[in-house]
Structures
1.
Amino acid sequence: MFCCLPSKEKRIQITNTEVVEEKPSAEKVYLRKEYMGSTTAVEKWKRDTPPSHFIFMIRSFSQLSQSGIQKLESGVFQACDKKWKLCVHYDKGGKKADGEDDDGRISLYLQIVETESLPRGWEVHAKFNFFVYDQINDNYLTIQDGGGKVRRFHYMKTKWGLDELLPLSTFTNPSNGYLVDDTCAFGAEVFVLPNSTKRECHSIMVNKDPENNIHTWKVSGFSSIKTESVNSNEFFIQGIKWILRLYPKGHSTAKGQSLSLYLALTAAEDANNSPNTKLYAKYKFRICNQLNTQHHETSCLERVFDDPKGPSYGMQKCMPLKMLESTSGGFLVNDTLVVEVEFLLLSKVSDF
């Protein structure tokens, strides 16, 4: 058991926990409550077995109202490898705005704590039961929030519970056994669902100005290239370093038939290119017509680049060699070829 002694402080913390085997009773009463304009399905039943995870005893309970304390927090306890605490709220009631009497209530909340060690973007999905000890019958009123609904705890919502665990008149009625000799006890059981969800965040990086998303490469002395492939100089798009790789006579199955063109991610000093970051790119190639605007464009390509030392991605059959080498085509002028890559979408892909 855990004891909370009266104090001049507005908040009192308790520190111990108790774990016992759960053996719930089959006897249940299903209720539906309305409070503060919201409807909450609450399941209640009595059982003999104590809470499996935590019991929070409060002595001299009447001093809460006398000292003006409205909230009492337990110490931290552990359940399902997570840290939690109970928050008991006491509302003595009074007159409502419409003049009717408000008898007051006991509220109880479960809060996840010490979340600093949890990973970025953490979420905990849990079911929980609350308990109020009946000291006359030596059993526990068991209260299940939302009929066993799974609650989602996260950094913006660390606390869930019941605005009205019990009406104050029910709680303080001696015949109910919840408050005896100015002493009461609350409890909690928490059951965390395993979370195997993979989370991925895309951070869009392409600039709205199209000119900043295009890289142009002039390949001079095209006919004199003796190697199977040639690389462009490195270039940056949105802080990411890339190269273009050109196969003048084609690559693989397109060899001798088509110009082949590829895009490759290269090693970068920029932090955006860290080993743990993937890059999603949607792009297309363009072989520029130097005599008119009838450029030759490829269809859009979509690839994930995750390794600067990894493969390049592009098109084996970027442009037929017969079209490229045509003297009237306008694509090869003064032995110079002009190619472009245009990024339609570029985003960082990271887990969270």
2.
Amino acid sequence: MSAKKKAHLLGFVQHGVMNHASTMWAHPRDKVGYHWSRPEFWRDLGRTMERGLFDAMFIADELAPYTTYKGSSDPVVKYAGQCPVHEPAALVPIIGAFTKHLGIGITLSTSFVPPYMMARQLSTLDHLTNGRVGWNIVTSYSKSEFQAMGKDNLTPRDKRYEVVEEYMQLLYQLWDSWDDDAIVYDRENGVFADPSKVREVDFQGEFFTSKGRHFVAPSPQKRPVLWQAGSSEQGRDFAAKHAESVFGIFPTPKSMRAYADDIRSRADNAGRDPESVKLIYGLQTVIDRDKARANDRYAEFVEKVQIESALGILSGHTGFNFSTLGLDDNVVDADVQGIRGLFDAILEAKDGAPVTVREAAQIYGVSMGAPVAVGTPADVADQMEQYLDEGGCNGFMMLATDTPGCFNDMTELLVPELQRRGRFRTRYPGTTLRDSLQEY
């Protein structure tokens, strides 16, 4: 009898008033006794996730308010539709200082940070956390972000992956330029490092050039753990080549399995061990010891959804202006410049049946199109086991509802149930994020 597959758990949040459930900031359970922009909230949220043995806290990001819906950011400003959003990297030392094992993953865009600076920033953060940093590699797709950054035009999708491929090759050269034994710390002779073991990078590419030595000594992980969410054909190839963990949002076990098989096949073609690439899928949970109370709480979350807010976020994420359709019109396939996988999740939300714009807003406003598990700890664990076994995933991005309450529920109710079933760790395997991710 084969061993049961164990799950990885990541807490999916954002450094803002809202996470990934529309208008949840207005819920009476949300952030009681805390302010989302203050360090105490993040300190205690990190401690809660570590108590639950989560692999990491994953911090999503946007760089400017979305303007895709109706050509204005008014809806997202009015309803706090992922607005405001504060800078994520600043949270890393705070969370790291109050935890010992929890990984901290941040989203940083390659579109606006030069590779040399990106390498330096991530290496520094890996030092400050004793090797617990992960990087979600993104290329910006939002017109509002490019305008805010003073850029005239979006980079076309096909060109984006050419640029980021070269970006990654430069980063690898920088991170790998210090030999493991380069630092000698010879106090007697006053020699800190052997220059022959700290190579100067001289990179001349089509999009980037860089000449100089990496300015940070090798960090505990040397390279941060690399995360990515590739959904287009080029995105899937990129994820299969570079990512240690690949994120996705899929509404059914069938679509989960198809994506998992595809990514693992591409990883194999890229010369990697397919099982080394961890497939982490979005999941939202509403957990209570009493099933009726869990259902009532979920109904409250659905009722809180503001249609305008949800459509503002959905339009921003996908790059498709949903105000061009009526609320009772069906969503049809389109060529989107934003996140293809999130658009597909809406198209597939009712297992192939037509989805109206109103329904899309409700679905996206609650869980961004991810499946929702509602019920007792046993009910939720049953659903997670199905996704692990039938969907082919390795774990879950746990989408926040009310915080920190939802993560308290996961830690106190769900994790013990998963442990009883042999589906989750009972202690951390090591000290780095990579240790946790590669444990099983």
3.
Amino acid sequence: MNDVYVILLVLFPILLFLGLPIYAALGITGLAVSYLTDAPLIFATQNVLNGLDKFALLAIPSFILAGNIMQKGGITEDIISIFRHAFGHIPGSLGIVTIFSCMFFAAISGSGPGTVAAIGAIMIPSMIKAGYSPEYAASVSATGGTLGVMIPPSNPLIIYGIIANVSIADLFAAGMLPGLFTAFLLAGVAYVLAIRSGAVIEIDHSIERQSIWCLIWKAKFALFLPIFILGGIYSGIFTPVEASVCAVVYALVVSVVVYRQLTLPGLRAAFENAVRLGGALMIIVACSTLFATVITLERIPQDVVESFSGITESATLILLLICLMLIIIGTFMETISAIIILAPILVPLVVSYGIDPVHFGIILIVTIEIAFLTPPLGVNLFVASQIANIKFERVAVAILPYVATLIMVMLIVIFFPQLSLWLPETLRSLR
């Protein structure tokens, strides 16, 4: 083992263990390898700047801002009301409502924790008040938030598309069917768990079938936004970056002119949150670019390909091994960081086995969904437990049935690649 491998396998984990922010650990490790290989200092600075010199990255803060504006502008409540009226006559309906509300909000925000915060802040107190246990309310909200990284537009898919040099529009299309499939499965699990819990849940029998159409008409501007964004991208009218900016303008106009609930303090809070989250992601991307460049120049991806080639020739087995590794890594590493660090290594590996990088991107995202729910990191668990005001450990136990469901989805996507590839292939043929 040469000195570079020692730095990557020893220094980097030690820095993380000491509690350094992920961007600092990535940057220090990259600088150490650069120094060891006698690279000039300008090599490091150029790579950090080049990491941010990617036009597609502009979409991330814009989609975050659009989701924040919708939340502050009162649009989220209308979305939830539609699903409450659609499923309100079903026992255990609030769990189903939470999942589908998260699914819809995910089509705007592109963020998993952001989806939990937006929908969970409304649904968790409502579920507890209706007789659901705090553990159930928090677990179903945390699970629904995982759809934020699968349903397009998705910030992790944008990052993966940039790193893997894959069409972001194709990735968005590829995530649509698996995302919908996952939402329906999770809603089914939420329903079964609500019924089995034995909670006394009041059903609103006053709901009239035709009232949902009134709600749909009332929320027509909110419902049109995902159609506007995704339809524009898939039809080629605008790029994902242009779509993100259009989403901000659309959400701003609807919140101010139609709903008239967006205040100046609310708008300021939306911008502050978008800047904070977007800025944190940009720092990670910048530092991880140096890290990724170093491991590429040291031919580490090629070494990994050669090592795995000696283990098996089965593409399916390779995917299963990779997913197992990703689940383990995801328990202690932030999502975007894991993608940035591992994608440059894993994409050449899966391509060498004839696996479509678009298909692998969706497998990667499904695995990340599982990581969102697995301690000790489990970002969605932390957000949901704070809203429900219960201990993290209690939510971690209640989340297990949903984790098992996501593992099943991961296996289905692996063994049935057309679930993710059919839609992008169809859309490409229509262009």
